[in-house]
């Protein structure tokens, strides 16, 4: 049965069932779109600030002509709008790429509806940006406001042949639950904590008011758990977490739980979810609250045979694109000598194990270390396809953490392979774009390859792989062969991209793991380590790169020590502050340092455990630890960094109506994209609601400028970049006009580790130019600040007016 047809049948069955059984869901009518106009070759989005999209440009400045058959977006365009119709399965298909689908709906009245547009990367509804279901999952329903008369929908697509379906659900309940994208735990029999399991489902708020009094009642086997829900802004969705009490479940099997959504004392909707009781010997799912954003996430587990034992091994396995974490875990038979955990990357496609995928993987690893108490010297990393890339990336980024790594069918970099979001450009001759691309340096594991010397490496790849060519494995074999003394390589004869569970659960691979343990730092006397961002990766063994001379350029060390001769010697590159652990040396001895062919330095080991060095004017000298408020290991910049810490979106309401509408719409759009791409949940509040005492321990995202957002002076009075109507000031440099946009971050003045990210503009043209949303693409490079004109979608890099990285004290560098 065709996948699209199967989905439509399932949707109708679910609608009929709950319509008949649940008094909280009123009768619905559905308008299915069957005809529209499509145009191709209109945009180029990738993993960088620069993009091309003339339609978005015209939509932003009000010059877009109503699409018509054979019409063009611009006179120079070779492509025209063409009529497209759905096939027998209700999907628009065709050999079109990088374009837009235009749909209209004549509404007899002003009303709200739920829009489901499956297969589009994002859409505009009457000019307002809304989230997209790029992978065609089919569970994204967005509340939209329909005007009386003609309503216009533009869906941006990358390839129409995979199909787009679109429908409007009319007369739906104003507040309802959607369970198709539930995040749910398994009930592991006999495991502690079954009285406080957590799950998450989507609440749709199709009203004009913020939901502030929501509660979730969960009934499982007669046992009840109640949870208060976070606020949900008007005309928006949010995935909300809730408690589950599973103490009444004592046998393996399938269980139905009832979810009752209450607003105040009124039951608004009721739905059912399915949970599974599992034996501790089976593969199972565990949920947890993520520190990234406070949302509910899960990981899969392949349990150790006979139960987990303290001091055993721990395997972290990162999945491929489109693979669920529990599916990844189930590809492995349980091992006698350790437990395997599989994090999610926040979604089956997620972030390519970069950015928030990286944080998710290490968050799950930390949870598993605390739960299963493995031997720290027996922690291993592996993964397949996109997870093979994740293995290369995490293996290089966290050098010294792994006893051995094993990329399977993996590609090393997003520069070389890419994915649905495209490739990171490898290089450019344009100095501005070169500066922009520097923000992606942490992704380039080729430049970090010497970090692999800290662990054993086993490369596993089918020699007939047509998805990820075996040439990538051969490339890495050649690179490692130049310096690595301990790696193994195997091409599976006739192996395709996936040739059964042996694609990952390969006995020689796990034999290789079992032969390897991480040596204690006291036994490692040579460290070759590189990083491009100290807030992402700063330590290998006893060497700490604490501060870079040039942010986001590669910083390197090649250091050796002798405990008997009491010396440390070697070379460094692009390091301002260096930390060397000295606890392996006897207290009171004189340690001689010979760095970068400079005169020797002697230091008496004071027993503190750490020696700090600073490079002043090209000369190393003994120093104190770097200032925690400066750039360093806790906070090193890039625009995306504040999105890591339970971010809160603060939209402006002190501007004119158009500015205020933009701020709310953009914040909601970002929240929808974060939910879709990262299974995330985020607080969206107005500047009137913002309270530094309440929100001060979080990353803060500001939408608007000094004139339109009341939180500006509280958060950004100290910022070297100031934006107001018709004016941007970068220090003493001033740019004027209503057509400037900006992405930038600044450190929080009241907190040494948190920051504020700002999406801003000097007028509506500049604000709308900031609507592009590729900063949630994994590995995409956004420096500390970027200022651009509104013609960025048509003029590319030439529209960048200023960009770069702050100095280590967070001041602007001198403009050249």
UniProtKB/TrEMBL annotation:
Instruction: Record the organism.
Output: Lunatimonas lonarensis
Protein name stated in the entry: Peptidase S9 prolyl oligopeptidase catalytic domain-containing protein
Q: Which InterPro entries match?
A: AB_hydrolase_fold, Peptidase_S9_cat, Plant_Biomass_Hydrol_Est
Keywords annotated in UniProt: Signal
Which N-terminal residues, if any, form the signal peptide?
Answer: 1-27
Ranges for domain Peptidase S9 prolyl oligopeptidase catalytic: 352-506
Pfam families tied to this protein? Peptidase_S9
Q: Which domain of life is it from?
A: Bacteria
